[in-house]
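I am still getting used to backbone structure tokens and would like to learn alongside you. To get us started, please write out a protein record for me. Start from the sequence, derive the backbone structure tokens from it, and show both lines together. Once you have written the record down, we can walk along the chain together:
***
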Amino acid sequence: MNIPDLTARYRAGTDPATIVHATYDRIDARGDDHVWITLRSRADVLADAAALTRRWPDPATRPPLWGVPFGVKDSLDVAGIPTTVACPAYAYVPDRTAPLVRRLLDGGALLVGKTNLDQFATGLSGMRSPYGTPESPLVPGLVCGGSSSGSAVAVGAGLVPFAVATDTAGSGRVPAVLTGTVGFKPTRGLVSTLGLVPACESIDCASVIARTVADACAVLSVMAGPEPGDPWSRDFPGPGAVPADTGPLRVGVPDHPEFHGDAAAAAGFGDAVARLDALGHTAVPVDLRPFLAAGRLLYDGPWVAERLAVFGDFLADHGDDLHPVTRRVLSTGGSLTAVDAFRGLHRLQTLKAATRPVWDAVDVLAVPTVPTTFTRAEMAADPIGRNTVLGHYTMFANLLDLAAVAVPAGTTATGRPHGVTFLGPAGSDAVIAGAAAGFTGETARHNAVAVTPHAG
């Protein structure tokens, strides 16, 4: 159920307790699906629901997310609930709630629990957690993506209408495509990251996973805004509570897209570009090489060492408590020097300059969200190499200060999900949201062109 439908039910007289019971019934029916690290008790959430009714008895005065259940990635603090970052030895119980979560609670949303993730938010597969590996709800045996694995599956499986994620290298977009959901990574700093255990603090970004672009926009409109005391907070316009019809756009598409041998995924993206044309947009070929080169800096450059600014001491003292792949990734940062850091910064600045002229020629970029997909067995066989493949089109966004929204684009001829990500410069959240909503058929002007699976 999406947020407008749920709001309509409340206006018609449905009690929030009914929705809470239905939510927990769905969670119980799925059994141990490894979605939740900490699931709040049904009784506690029912008490919160009763408090909502007492606080806002008049439907006309209720905030926009009144009575909407949601989950929070377990790298964000919620007072009184352990923050584990998927590492039991690292866990602590915060006494303050992250501002972005506080804004959602003040907006009437009902917190169900904290969701699973790749340990220390390091990974794009969803397979690096001691709390188990969630599976894509779309295809048995398919990875669900990460690091926001639990958040994506919670939404994709219909457990909650939205969940809070984070997205540094693609952690909110990769799982979106693999679970059939929308992953909205706003402009960095639009949503505060206070109360977030950093992965790579200078480029970390809070994000939303939802069923629709409109739902993601509605949630972001509550979460977004400058936060006093947050050194990374920035004052940019948000996407608005409702995505706007953008009209025809110049849409940049890769001139030589890479699919790592997945012909079905290539055909699926071809269908997506044809759909953009049918919607009245103009496809503009773009050389993605400088974008992709920037993305490679995230793990081949000094930014991997930034993770040690938070976890270095823990790695030294508790290395045996880490997932072996997480330990391996973090350990590579220890050999990097200050000289390497400046070389990386200088290289990034050169690549930013190389990508800047693209935005004079296009309004948005549209790229495949992932070039191909993997089963859990395939990912286990090459956990680092295939993780890099999943991040091919996502790792550059935050380094280049881009906003991005990933949306489903149907199913390939081989039965795998595929999707499209719309990107734009910092502050373009409303434009990319409008383009994405048009693509998915959510805006009235575009409803006539439906998303259809590739016919082969």
Q: What stands out?
A: Residues 444-456 have pLDDT under 50 and may be disordered. Residues 1-456 form a domain with the Amidase signature (AS) enzymes fold (CATH 3.90.1300.10).
